[in-house]
Amino acid sequence: MAADPDVTGITNVRIGAASSRAVPVLLHSYEPAGRPVPLVLTAGAPPAQAGDLVLAPATARRLGAGVGSVVPMAGDRGARQLRVTGIGFAMESSTDPYDNGGWVTGAGYDALVSGFKEHGALVALRPDADPSPAGPAGARLERLAAAAAGGPLTVITPFQPRQLGEISDVRVLPTLLGGFLAVLAVGAVGYALVAAVSRRSRDIAVLRALGMTPAQSRWAALTQATVFTMAGLLAGIPLGVAAGRALWRVTAAFIPLDYQPPDAGRLLLLTIPAVLACGLLLALVPGQRAARLRASQVLRGE
Length: 302
What we know:
Blueprint: E1 7-20, E2 23-32, E3 41-44, E4 52-55, H1 57-63, E5 70-75, E6 78-88, E7 102-105, H2 106-112, E8 118-125, H3 136-149, H4 162-170, H5 172-199, H6 201-209, H7 214-254, H8 265-282, H9 284-292, H10 295-301
Parallel strand pairs: 2-7, 4-6
Antiparallel strand pairs: 1-2, 1-8, 3-6, 4-7, 5-6
Helix pairs in contact: 6-10, 7-8, 7-9
């Protein structure tokens, strides 16, 4: 199988029952055959020695363990103290979710468990390879696997856990929330600019009487809009990025998902000029009102 051009990694996996502090733990053996299929870890590193252990997030919470913790683990062959080297996902199946269980090396598995509940392999394919039995890569993989095992094997194609479907169902909500907040911000800035011209009409009239030109009155509103938008950008961008990443990290840990910090660099590069342009556009109407203000009428009313 390793010679197949579509195969990029193979990991032999045996699954057996163990327990730790009365908590059932479904142990998975991590036995790469050549280049491994990488584990999905949220912290730490994969097991490298017989005494290493990677715990799934839900199991780690039940045991109160984290990276660096030492936990007891018992199987039908005996008990050992294992050091947690990482937190990562196990294998999703019809009976066990991916956030339960643990990974140990082949030697660590043999020291704890005899036999196995299930025995198979994780196979990674090139991104453009079709893993379905109808595809050329899937059909060839089934033939190679059957030849290696000396008999027919069950090949399970990748499937998405239900959590990914739940995230896909609500992925539009952050976009809607961002749009609502953007409209709210535009309305707030526009109101502040219009109200500022109305409240400061006497001051503008006095300055006009002292020689301020209509163009300078217009630039006063534009300057105020620039100050508003720059203050919002300077405070909102770092606070928004920090709050968004913190909330997403908490959400990813709760579901659980593998947390990946969003790449907001390009979006921010587009946001800064867009916000400045929006602020200047909002200042056009109050700026025009300030330019057309009749100083004599305002001062006569005083």
